[in-house]
């Protein structure tokens, strides 16, 4: 390859802003996680210098970015993903989605972020104060890079409400009236007089003989992008036979 072509490859970068919603799994090269973390760290350093909040990582954004980096590497072409493609993969509930930066030919996280920061459109994505989360993909075959940006509301969940008879052999049901973002994962833990019940990790619980004379509660936790929020129900009446 001539010197001119090498320069073109190094300077080839792209930008896209669109929309998105659900999630998938991508296969990343063995060392891609460390590389992705470096890109996120350097990106957040630039945001801090410019008075922006740090972006958090989110698994569906990472998987989507990695899938597209793998695609570009396999085809040998640098091209943007489409709105519809991302919309079928990124976690639901984004209030703003999705900015995309792509590049190829750069051999280090520092070099690719430096190039993006020198480009008006890419810099705008990196410094956009509306974004809250970012995913990164990298494939060393051809050195293809992808950043995907999105904004998600703060993680929240309502207090769980219980229904059912507080008697041995009956099932108690726990429900929440809402949580955010829509792509957040909910987990449950039941307690008897404040002590966690082993294995009771669903939204339904079969009342046991060992719980007679105790009051039960359930805690629900909403998790998204490494941030968790928990709420605990009011206690049941004293459990009876």
TrEMBL record:
Pfam families (UniProt xref): CAP (PF00188)
Keywords: Signal
UniProt keyword Transit peptide present: no
TM annotation in the entry: none
Domain of life the protein comes from: Bacteria
Signal peptide: 1-22
InterPro entries: CAP_dom (IPR014044), CAP_sf (IPR035940)
CDD domains, per the entry: CAP_bacterial
UniProt domain SCP: residue ranges: 42-149
Xref: PANTHER family: SCP DOMAIN-CONTAINING PROTEIN
Entry protein name: CAP domain-containing protein
Native source organism of the sequence: Labedella phragmitis
């Amino acid at each position: 390859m001539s010197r001119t072509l090498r320069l073109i490859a190094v300077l080839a970068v792209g930008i896209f802003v669109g929309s998105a919603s659900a999630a998938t799994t991508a296969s990343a090269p063995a060392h891609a996680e460390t590389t992705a973390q470096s890109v996120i760290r350097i990106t957040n350093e630039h945001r801090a210098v410019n008075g922006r909040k740090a972006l958090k990582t989110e698994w569906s954004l990472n998987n989507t970015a990695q899938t597209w980096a793998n695609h570009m590497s396999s085809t040998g072409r640098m091209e943007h993903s489409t709105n519809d493609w991302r919309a079928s993969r990124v976690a639901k509930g984004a209030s703003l989605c999705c900015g995309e930066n792509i590049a190829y030919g750069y051999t280090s996280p520092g070099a690719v972020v430096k190039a993006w920061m020198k480009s008006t459109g890419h810099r705008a994505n990196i410094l956009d104060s509306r974004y809250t989360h970012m995913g990164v993909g990298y494939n060393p075959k051809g050195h293809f890079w992808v950043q995907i940006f999105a904004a998600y509301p703060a993680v929240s969940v309502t207090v769980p409400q219980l229904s059912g008879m507080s008697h041995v052999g009956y099932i108690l049901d726990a429900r929440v009236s809402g949580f955010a973002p829509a792509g957040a994962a909910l987990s449950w833990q039941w307690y008897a007089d404040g002590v966690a019940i082993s294995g009771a990790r669903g939204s339904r619980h079969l009342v046991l003989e060992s719980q007679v004379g105790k009051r039960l509660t359930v805690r629900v936790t909403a998790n998204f992008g490494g941030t968790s929020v928990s709420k605990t129900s009011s206690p049941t009446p004293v459990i009876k036979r």
